[in-house]
């Protein structure tokens, strides 16, 4: 398969796919990996193609001419490319090689993609991202505070846990931005937060999205819930009342608390905050936010 990754954050897009499907090989923003799972979970993958061939641009015409299109053609076809001017030229080769060819530009049964990069990749589309994250924008939800994480990023964080089925706990749940995405992916959820206002907001959002799961007022340094992974974005410490050292202490104490019973933690922390813990720490991606805030995304594991 070829996973066509969003160019906005290739690192994060790659990590998300690999957490669910295993290690792949990256060329530009194309990740080559033979993995089958529910692709609609992915936030930063735009398309998934069945790999057909790779070649130099100068060989493309010959390759197209000699390829057995009968093997991939079904009912109708269209050619798509990141360089649209070539679409028509190459459609001719498919047209000439199949019986009763039919071109269908919208909802085609055989959508062939040609990607021009350093090399040229050709594949047949098997999945297109249709998720409309904008529809779930935090400010459109009944429980809203500006701390809310955006749904696309929240979804990627959940995927980084690699949990395909099971329970996600967010001990800094805020308005439940992460848990909403986890729930929509078919996972079970638990949320907790120190601030009663956040728990109230989360309750409204749980109702809005018809979610089942526990919501608890409490301190992440003390609560203990069994889960398959923790996924969270703890406070950033941008407010004057929460200084960097206090934030680092909070992260440390929280991780000490959960180390004994949680195998995996996906955590997003501001660039300048040191994450100290007994967990094995892997920096998987960086998220650049407007206004000078850069956040690092870590996956912490016990082994
Ligand atoms: C960046 S916000 C999380 C936003 C959340 N992901 C959302 O989508 O709304 C961090 C949250 O951590 C909570 N918090 C701060 N200290 C905490 C602690 N010791 N235990 C639990 N929650 C805490 C804050 O009340 C805040 O809601």
Describe it.
The protein has 303 residues and is α/β, with parallel strands linked by helices. It has two domains: 2-128, VC0802-like (2-Layer Sandwich); 133-301, 3-Layer(aba) Sandwich (Rossmann fold). It has seven helices and 14 strands. Strands 2-3-1-4-7-6-5 form a seven-stranded mixed β-sheet. It has a seven-stranded mixed β-sheet with strand order 10-9-8-11-12-14-13, covered by helices on one side. It starts with a strand and ends with a strand. The model has no long low-confidence stretch (mean pLDDT 94). It binds S-adenosylmethionine. Residues 147-149, 171-172, 174-175, 177-178, 193-195, 198, 219-221, 233-235, 250 line the site of S-adenosylmethionine.
Give the tags.
seven-stranded mixed sheet; binds S-adenosylmethionine; 25% helix; VC0802-like; Rossmann fold; 303 residues; alpha/beta; 27% strand; 2 domains; single chain
- CA-to-CA gap between the ends? 30 Å
What fraction of residues sit in β-strands? 25-35%
The number of distinct helices, counting runs of at least 4 residues, comes to 7
Strand order of the largest sheet: 2-3-1-4-7-6-5
CATH architecture call of the largest domain: 3-Layer(aba) Sandwich
Secondary structure: helix percent? 25-40%
Number of domains: 2
Bound molecules: S-adenosylmethionine
Structural shape: elongated
Number of strands: 14
Low-confidence stretches: none
Q: Identify the CATH class of the largest domain.
A: Alpha Beta
């Amino acid at each position: 398969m070829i996973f066509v990754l969003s160019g906005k954050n290739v690192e994060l897009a790659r990590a998300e796919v690999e957490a669910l499907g295993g290690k792949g090989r990256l060329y530009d923003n194309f990740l080559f990996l033979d993995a089958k799972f529910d692709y609609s979970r992915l936030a930063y993958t735009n398309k998934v193609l069945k790999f057909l061939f790779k070649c130099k641009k100068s060989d493309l015409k010959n390759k197209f001419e000699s390829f057995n299109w009968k093997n991939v053609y079904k009912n109708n076809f269209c050619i798509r490319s990141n360089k649209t001017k070539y679409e028509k030229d190459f459609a001719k080769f498919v047209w000439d090689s199949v019986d009763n060819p039919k071109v269908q530009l919208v909802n085609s049964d055989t959508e062939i993609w040609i990607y021009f990069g350093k090399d040229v990749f050709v594949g047949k589309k098997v999945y297109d991202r249709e998720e409309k994250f904008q529809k779930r924008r935090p400010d459109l939800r009944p429980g809203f505070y500006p701390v809310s994480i955006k749904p696309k990023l929240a979804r990627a964080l959940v995927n980084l846990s690699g949990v395909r089925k099971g329970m996600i706990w967010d001990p800094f749940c805020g308005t439940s931005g992460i848990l909403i995405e986890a729930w929509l992916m078919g996972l079970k959820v638990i949320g907790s937060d120190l601030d009663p206002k956040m728990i109230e907001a989360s309750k409204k959002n749980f109702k809005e999205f018809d979610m089942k799961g526990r919501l608890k007022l409490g301190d992440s340094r003390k609560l203990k819930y069994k889960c398959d992974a923790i996924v969270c974005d703890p406070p950033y410490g941008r407010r004057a009342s929460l200084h960097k050292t206090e934030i680092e202490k909070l992260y440390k104490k929280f991780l000490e608390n959960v180390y004994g019973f949680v195998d995996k933690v996906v955590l997003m922390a501001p660039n300048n905050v040191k994450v100290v813990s007994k967990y094995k720490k892997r920096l998987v991606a960086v998220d650049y936010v407007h206004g000078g805030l850069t956040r690092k995304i870590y996956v912490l594991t016990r082994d």
